[in-house]
Design brief:
Two copies of one chain form a homodimer.
Chain A: E1 6-9, E2 21-24, E3 34-43, H1 46-52, E4 69-76, E5 88-91, E6 94-96, H2 102-105, E7 116-117, E8 140-144, E9 149-150, H3 157-160, H4 166-176, E10 184-188, H5 192-203, E11 207-213, H6 218-224, E12 228-232, H7 236-240, E13 247-252, H8 261-265, E14 268-276, E15 284-286, H9 288-294, E16 297-300, H10 306-317, E17 326-330, H11 334-342, E18 349-353
Helix pairs in contact in A: 4-5
Chain lengths: ~350, ~350
């Protein structure tokens, strides 16, 4: 089988709004622990847009983003970890790590001090160390089999794609803070991550409260699995007063310039946590006294490991109602999809589908 | 046996510096679930000084603070929970709660929405509801047996007193965040709470790093059980650079006007927590990005329950080296002890000893 390596490449900070160029690229050197994956689907995540807009720093010419990848294995090396040609696998936000440190050994690869991020950072080991990796807005992905995770039976591959970044990003803190039966979980913001957080928390057995501006998304939130909905307006303290001390955990998926964390802390039960997975530009500010008297925390969480992705895939495979709501775009229309994404149009995740590779629109 | 109710009462905000007046007071109505305790020892805690200085709000005339009490039971009611005259018991920062809510039912009385605080707040139930309680800078304590905890054998009663507030205040977060073998715990500040945090974390099996200004307290920190010491100066970021990602948990016992939380977050390993037990006046401010990439948290913790006090007493009884370092003052010298306390003189806890009641100086 022959296949090519071509992708939608960013060249300047306007790329986020649809200025990507379709072009061939040189993949990393194939090594015995690598696989080649013919890409079927790739989700569009907020951090792809941020990276292409230069918000995480200047990008090199030819940056290929995309990190919610699902595709078919077309080549394996001698140490490809049991993967076989024809397997359907996915790759998330992390493409590689040192595989030698205590965190990699503990199957917490996301904490490795030298991760390779799929939307573009250098490989840290092997013959291609130092060269930039290429992401999922492409025809083919090549990389370590360790980070290519086989889909379980019963999972629609297009709907599965967003689980590999957005999904595991909310699953990891939900698991870490004990979401399950008897736990009251708030999800702040109903977008790509938020809608998955509602679904996943519900699938884990938690009672879910969605928190969003106005009531426009209430019907969707309830369909996604929320039993309660708090519509916010101009005065959070007033909005939250009837719900004081009602939640064990809040997953904050929003990323406005500023978040009034103190207002959200009032929603937490003792020993509760407000956990940010969406970055906020301005510093977070709150008084220590309510933190101490309420015995609450403000935390952050950063994607998940291959093992955590596997757990999440199994959970969603056994809870079909928790599959992300995706809207498919033709792979070749990425420059139309990105501006729509940036307008907030997804309900709730855009996924590119490469029909030439066999994807279904 | 006859005994009187007399205490050292505060009347204005200068009281913290030693303007307390010794006078008789009317105790609460004795109820069948109460005990009377002849006070032998009472620790002096920072929050006593703060309360007497009006920092937590104006105080009523005749406020009796003191909430690290150890004494001998001299009267029991019919429902005094198995306590008997002659038992040596202690009372911490909490004197009562509703005993009916979900938190009280779950033995987490510190989270009851209507706690009665020993250094002065109103009773919430029974015949004395609405009247102010009286604390431990007194000859006798009267209150619910539920909050009077029997000392286990082998614990020196004077050294045990500080465990009832300062000790359990650091024990509770150490336990909640998993301090034990294999855990690297940082203790920020070596004062009343900090010195107990080092001892207790060490007794729990953790590896302890003490963090303090300069190196004046290094020798003490090591004697208390710290295996490492980080001396801080004017540039925290530089001081901490060699120790980046080295600690699982930091218990912050300091209460300066301002804390540079961001600098301390750099010390945390992934999933680590910076937990404040000392209040800080100015708002806490940090950027969300390191919180997310490091998967770390900033939390608070608020004293502990009677059950947690019992656990701590058992731990220290079985680890005699973890008994607090106390300096005794005669009960009648409280107005001399308070100004010394406010100068930072304790090494590391002042305890009042009432020799007329049988205490030993």
């Amino acid at each position: 089988m022959t296949y090519e390596f071509k992708g939608w490449a960013g060249y300047d900070e306007k790329a986020a709004d649809g200025g990507l160029k379709y072009e061939a690229f040189e993949p990393k050197v194939f090594e015995e622990d690598d696989v080649d994956v013919k890409i079927l689907y790739c989700g569009i995540c907020g951090s792809d847009a941020s990276v292409l807009a230069g918000e995480f720093g200047p990008i090199e010419a030819g940056r290929v983003a995309g990190h919610e990848i699902v595709g078919e294995v077309v080549r394996v090396g001698a140490q490809s970890g049991g993967l076989a040609v024809g397997d359907v696998v996915g790759i998330g936000a992390q493409t590689d790590s040192c595989l030698a440190c205590e965190f990699c050994d503990a199957h917490k690869e996301q904490y490795c001090a030298t991760p390779t991020l799929t939307f573009g950072s250098p490989y840290v080991r092997g013959k291609s160390a130092g060269t930039m990796c290429k992401g999922g807005f492409a025809t083919t992905w090549r990389g370590p089999a360790h980070f290519a995770i086989k889909l379980p039976a019963g999972l629609d591959p297009a709907a599965a794609a967003p689980l590999f970044c957005g999904g595991v990003t909310v699953y990891t803190p939900l698991k870490r803070w004990g979401a399950g039966p008897g736990k009251r979980v708030g999800v702040l913001g109903i977008g790509g991550l938020g809608h998955m957080a509602i679904q996943i928390a519900k699938a884990m057995g938690a009672d879910v409260t969605a928190i969003s501006r106005g009531s426009g998304k209430e019907a969707d939130a309830r369909k996604l699995g929320a039993s309660k909905y708090i519509a916010t307006g101009a005065d959070l303290a007033a909005d939250f007063a009837p719900h004081a001390r009602s939640l064990d955990l809040i997953i904050s998926t929003i990323n406005p310039p500023k978040v009034d964390v103190a207002a959200y802390l009032a929603l937490l039960r003792p020993e509760g946590a407000f956990v940010l997975v969406g970055a906020v530009v301005e510093p977070i500010t709150f008084h220590s006294f309510p933190l101490i008297t309420g015995a609450v925390s403000v935390g952050g969480s950063n994607t998940g490991s291959p093992d955590e992705i596997r757990e999440l895939l199994a959970l969603v495979a056994s809870h079909p109602e928790a599959a992300p709501w995706v809207q498919k775009w033709a792979f070749e229309d990425i420059n139309k999809a990105l501006p729509e994404f940036n307008k907030g149009a997804p309900r709730y995740r855009f996924v590119l589908a490469n029909t030439e590779n066999g994807a279904k629109l």
